[in-house]
Design a protein that fits this description.
Layout (H helix, E strand, L loop, with lengths): L1 E7 L2 H16 L5 E6 L3 E4 L12 H6 L3 E4 L6 E4 L3 E7 L9 H17 L6 E3 L2 E6 L2 E11 L2 E9 L22 H5 L5 H15 L3
Parallel strand pairs: 1-2, 3-4
Antiparallel strand pairs: 2-6, 3-5, 6-10, 7-8, 8-9, 9-10
Helix pairs in contact: 3-5
Length: 206
């Protein structure tokens, strides 16, 4: 797979670049693994319930948080600096060609990633994402075009958790947590990126 680090990138610009990657992989190019961060933005998946936004759009935008409707599954989520966003643009015809298995692999990978940092996390049946106790730490939402995946994971590393008070994350009555909150100090983003790359290379070896 080709690994790309886009750094801090505007969400809409990043989505356009991601879709160009999808087209490229659909045409036979190598799988891409994209890592990045976004300025504060709420993304509304196809299943977003209006009640999942706890404030009016204008009040949210007044906080400096953009709002973007997207073509992934799931409800509303938040991206912000300090959250590692990972976009696997993978051709599943080279894997299991099974979306359920792919999602389960992502959750397993996320649990193993956190274990590297001494954080014991779990997946919960019927709820996408990864949790520490009852608190959610990683959100997962994907899209697929002709068996090529896009969108992906939002890993709360050093995220400003107060921004999640604007929403019901993923439509759930759940508290969000972060690696920083659990460890009691900020974590080097580069260390988390390196471990994320290792986990993807291990789990998605062809």
């Amino acid at each position: 797979m080709i690994i790309e680090d886009w750094g801090l990138i505007d969400y809409v610009e990043g989505l356009a670049r991601q879709k160009r990657c999808v087209q490229s992989v659909m045409q036979g190019a190598a799988d891409r693994l994209v890592l990045c961060e976004h300025p504060p933005v709420l993304t509304l998946g196809r299943m977003t319930n209006p009640d999942s936004l706890l404030y009016q759009h204008k009040d949210i935008e007044a906080r400096g948080v953009a709002i973007v409707s997207v073509d992934r599954g799931g409800d509303v989520t938040l991206h912000a600096p300090g959250q590692l966003v990972v976009y696997p643009v993978f051709n599943l015809t080279h894997q299991d060609k099974n979306l359920k298995i792919y999602m389960e692999k992502l959750e397993e990978l996320a649990v193993d990633l956190l274990k590297n940092f001494g954080i014991l996390a779990i997946s919960i049946s019927g709820q996408r994402g990864v949790f520490v106790g009852k608190d959610k730490i990683i959100s997962i939402g994907v899209g697929v075009r002709k068996w090529v995946t896009y969108h992906g994971l939002g890993i709360n590393v050093n995220t400003d958790l107060s921004l999640f008070n604007l929403i019901k994350p993923c439509g759930l009555n759940v508290q969000m947590t972060s690696m920083q909150q659990l460890k009691g100090h900020p974590l080097p983003m580069e260390d988390v990126k390196a471990k994320a790359i290792e986990q993807f290379q291990e789990k998605f070896r062809k």
